[in-house]
């Protein structure tokens, strides 16, 4: 059941031919972040195993730690103490910060694009109204010059 869900989730995030590049990149970064958090949780438990004073000794704790780390919350309740654990923490931090930056940029781009489309429609309507006014003025001008020609 879970692999099918993951396959569909990845398909939704990365699929869709019409989706813009920034949304595909944000989706790809989100998938990468989830994988790094899951893998980083396992890796930090393996790196911290048997270390004196280690507090990341179970997968649930490590998963909570990776979420804290990726989101840059870092409560300080769990932290790696071994060099390899800190390397894993650094990777989780960098991927988390990058992903949230990409998602924020994708949302901003979406909002800006939406506003540009709205303004473009408004300009198009304004241009149509101006064109109609020009045609009316041209018709009035022809009528006025036609009356003078008849005199």
As a whole number of angstroms, the C-alpha radius of gyration is 29 Å
Order of helices and strands: HHHH
Please give the count of helices.
4
Helix content: over 70%
Mean pLDDT: 83
Poorly predicted sequence stretches spanning 5 or more consecutive residues: none
Strand count, sense and closure of the main sheet? none
Characterization of this structure:
By secondary structure, the protein is mainly alpha-helical. Helix content is 80%, strand content 0%. Helix 2 packs across helix 3 and helix 2 runs antiparallel to helix 4.
Features:
151 residues, mainly alpha, single chain, 4 helices
Short synopsis of the structure:
This protein is an all-alpha fold and 151 residues long. 80% of the residues lie in helices and 0% in strands.
List the helices and strands and how they pair.
Elements: H1 2-14, H2 21-48, H3 59-70, H4 83-150
């Amino acid at each position: 059941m879970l692999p099918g869900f993951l396959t569909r989730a990845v398909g939704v995030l990365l699929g869709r031919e019409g989706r813009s590049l920034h949304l595909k990149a944000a989706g790809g970064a989100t998938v990468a972040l989830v994988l790094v958090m899951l893998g980083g949780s396992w890796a930090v438990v393996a790196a911290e195993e048997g270390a004196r004073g280690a507090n990341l000794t179970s997968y649930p704790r490590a998963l909570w730690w990776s979420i804290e780390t990726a989101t840059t919350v870092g409560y300080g309740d769990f932290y790696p103490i071994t060099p390899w654990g800190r390397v894993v923490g650094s990777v989780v931090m960098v991927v988390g910060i990058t992903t949230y930056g990409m998602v924020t940029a994708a949302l901003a781009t979406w909002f800006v694009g939406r506003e540009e489309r709205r303004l473009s429609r408004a300009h198009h309507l304004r241009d149509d109204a101006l064109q109609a006014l020009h045609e009316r003025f041209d018709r009035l001008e022809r009528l006025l010059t036609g009356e003078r020609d008849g005199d």
